[in-house]
Amino acid sequence: MLDEVFGDLTESFKGVIAGLKRDLSKIRTGRANPAIFDGLRVDYYGTPTPLNQVGAVKVVDANLITIQPWEKAMLPLIEKAIHASDLGLNPSNDGVLVRVPIPPLTGERRQDLVKLVKRTGEEHKIATRTHRRDANDMIKALQKDSEISEDEMHRALKSVQDSTDKTVATVDELLAAKEKEILEV
């Protein structure tokens, strides 16, 4: 029974870390990174479609991303979608490509992004603590139903807390790395 609880907890914690990595990759750092367009949808014949499915997204250099649509008719729609997003980018199209220059971040914008990173990290820490609470509740229910002894319950609760501490430490490491990347000039 405890093996199932720990298996579920481990999978939940892996999901928290994977979700944090995905969310952090979408935050702009002043360098060209195609992941900033991951959440962006383009109107493709009436259907909101991910940008990477309507064109090739390439990083030309540290300050420029180009998007070459599969169909030329998509150029203005891609441009419009980028303008409408809250990325703060100003694309231009030359009839073949959409060029998206990545402007350097201002000090104020960097601080805003650091706050966003911290808020994202806190959301993932809350998710971690929620998974811990659920695992603890399941362990206590097992003890209450006399499926495990009280000593086993205490050992299991300590093990759950140790796993939670490791996951929170990993979240903190990822946040510190992203914060350093954002503040790097």
Give structural notes.
- This protein is 57% helix and 15% strand.
- The protein has a 4-stranded antiparallel β-sheet, covered by helices on one side.
- By secondary structure, the protein is an alpha+beta fold.
- The termini are far apart.
- The chain folds into 2 domains: 2-26 and 106-183, Topoisomerase I, Chain A, domain 4 (Orthogonal Bundle); 34-101, 2-Layer Sandwich (Gyrase A, domain 2), CATH 3.30.1360.
- The model has no long low-confidence stretch (mean pLDDT 89).
- β3 and β4 form a beta hairpin.
- It has helices spanning 2-25, 75-84, 107-144, 150-183; strands at residues 41-44, 47-50, 55-61, 64-69, 92-93, 98-101.
- It is elongated, with a radius of gyration of 22 Å.
- It has 4 helices and 6 strands, in the order αββββαββαα.
